[in-house]
Amino acid sequence: MKDLAPHRHIDLKPFIDGAHVPTGNDAAVPTYDPATGEVLAQVPVADAALVDRAVKSAKAALKGAWAEITPAERGRILFRVAQAIRSRAEELATVESLDSGKPMREAKGDIETSARYFEYYAGMADKLQGDTIPLGKGFVSFTQHEPVGVTAHIIPWNFPLVTTTRGLAPALAAGATAVVKPAEQTPLTALMLGTILKDAGVPDGVVNIVCGTGATTGAPLVAHPDIAHVTFTGSVATGISVMRSAAEHVASVTMELGGKSPVVVLDDADQEAALEGTLKAIFTNAGQVCSAGSRLVIERGCADAFIEKLRARVRQIGIGRGIDDPGLGPIVSLQQLQKIDQIVTASIEAGAGLLEGGKILNPEGLGGWFYAPTLLKAAKADMPAVQEEIFGPVLTIQIADDFEHACELAECTRFGLVAGIYTADFSKAMRFGRSVSAGQVYINQYFAGGVETPFGGTKNSGFGREKGLEALRAYYAVKTITAKI
Ligand code: ADP
Known about the structure:
Blueprint: E1 15-16, E2 19-20, E3 28-33, E4 38-44, H1 48-63, H2 65-68, H3 71-87, H4 89-100, H5 104-122, E5 139-147, E6 150-154, H6 160-173, E7 177-181, H7 188-200, E8 207-209, H8 214-223, E9 227-233, H9 236-248, E10 252-256, E11 261-265, H10 271-283, E12 293-299, H11 300-315, H12 334-349, E13 353-356, E14 360-361, E15 370-371, E16 374-377, H13 384-387, E17 394-400, H14 403-410, E18 415-416, E19 418-422, H15 426-435, E20 440-443, E21 458-459, E22 462-463, E23 476-484
Parallel strand pairs: 6-7, 6-9, 7-8, 9-10, 11-12, 11-19, 12-17, 16-17, 19-20
Antiparallel strand pairs: 1-2, 3-4, 5-23, 10-22, 13-16, 14-15, 18-21
Helix pairs in contact: 1-8, 3-5, 3-7, 4-5, 5-6
This protein binds adenosine-5'-diphosphate (ADP).
Adenosine-5'-diphosphate binds at residues 154-156, 181, 183-184, 213-214, 218-219, 222, 234-235, 238, 241-242.
């Protein structure tokens, strides 16, 4: 029979040097089922001393066990990790859904994507080769790719396992080692990864997992002088403080920060495809997605009919517990729920038109944190619902006079993560794609691409690229060796 509480079997202690170790004190952070508000588990906090132990273990493994293994064998180990994740997919998805609140179908998709990261980068472990550089007959010069060192991975709560594996898989493929700090709201699947990695043959110390808050655990990790690279996904404000701290010991950083991405719909677009795409863009994971399409920028000619259809669809969205696979699950925490409500309220006060939703919900018998799927019509571009990343199921609608105006509105925020466009006009799609400030552009399909396609931000959305072959660059350093012969 399916175990509905697989989280009860998870070892919650920090995973250091290949084993879950006691923290030596009672400090713990609760993680909740956001659908009910009940505590799922009390997760022991790794303090600065334990973080130091984790970093030292990763440092020893870097020149020790991990360096002893050939790149080809490293690749085989990563393939085994992918298989092990797949073999526990049901259990991992159930825990992910319970801990984050995301609908089961999305949690299952996340687990498969996590396996895909290991599969994809496994194939690269023995292909990170350098160049020879022609300096003339008196010299030999070549480059070699060396692991960057011990890497820190600071993980957000919206895609707990996916973000962990997105950074870990390329880091390990490149021969680096790691210390992972999951988000305090959703640490469970990352904790399960410890033994999965060990059983697949990842040597002790190569990956360490330490839980706690940003202050207790994240800050000492990022500040540790033996950390060579920090991969951070989270808010702009925290990202800035992580960069400052990493700068103190000259660690490199990858910053995947927020977004306020537009979905542009032109008059000539396939309106049905655009409607499906818009719904997916904003309501996946209840809008708690960095790359959510949270602004619909729609050309005036098709706006009224499109918005009517959108409203009808939004009214039909079912709300419920993630594990019951509803249309829309809960918001991860009470704090996040209140933040969503505050931005929506402030926007309405600033003149936004409320078309649907706009309120906290209390579905019967649940007691958790839910927000109604919401449509807001923006009155002007400087209102909070246009400028602030809400991270909730709230779509802001901006009407554009024509294509040029739509391009202008697409650019009207400080963010530049993703931009989507729906149009039948290839030239317009290409003009938009080439000019818009964004790390990735989706044409006629939102969330187009996969583990193979580089992903990252421009402007306040950050810098550095994850996914695809680009991600590997963060995890190796190029050394040039030149000899006079
Ligand atoms: P949110 O505000 O959405 O919770 P954050 O950007 O604050 O997102 O959190 C993302 C991740 O960064 C979490 O794992 C969190 O614990 C961690 N974190 C928060 N503050 C710090 C910090 N000062 N140093 C390192 N990590 C931090």
